[in-house]
């Protein structure tokens, strides 16, 4: 069994918003609600992973920029 590709940040965020909407709407069985909750948790982890990666890249770029500025000074 292959693992589905990781969604983009935007895809995960949009799906997470839909999961929240469905949970808030109510009417789902307990089993369906638990499945939605679990999917929401997974999507939240995916979003956080994207954000953490972006922060790491930004920090690296800022650090490199500062190093170049220090070398030029």
Supply Rg.
Answer: 19 Å
SSE class: mainly alpha
Helix content: over 70%
Element order: H for helix, E for strand: HH
Poorly predicted runs: none
**Terminal residue distance:** 56 Å
Number of domains: 1
Please outline the major beta sheet: none
Shape: elongated
Mean pLDDT: 93
How would you explain this protein's 3D organization?
The mean pLDDT is about 95. This protein has 2 helices and no strands. The chain is mainly α.
What labels describe this entry?
single chain, 73 residues, mainly alpha, 82% helix
Secondary-structure topology with pairs:
Elements: H1 9-25, H2 30-72
Please give a quick description of this structure:
By secondary structure, the protein is an all-alpha fold. It has helices at 9-25, 30-72.
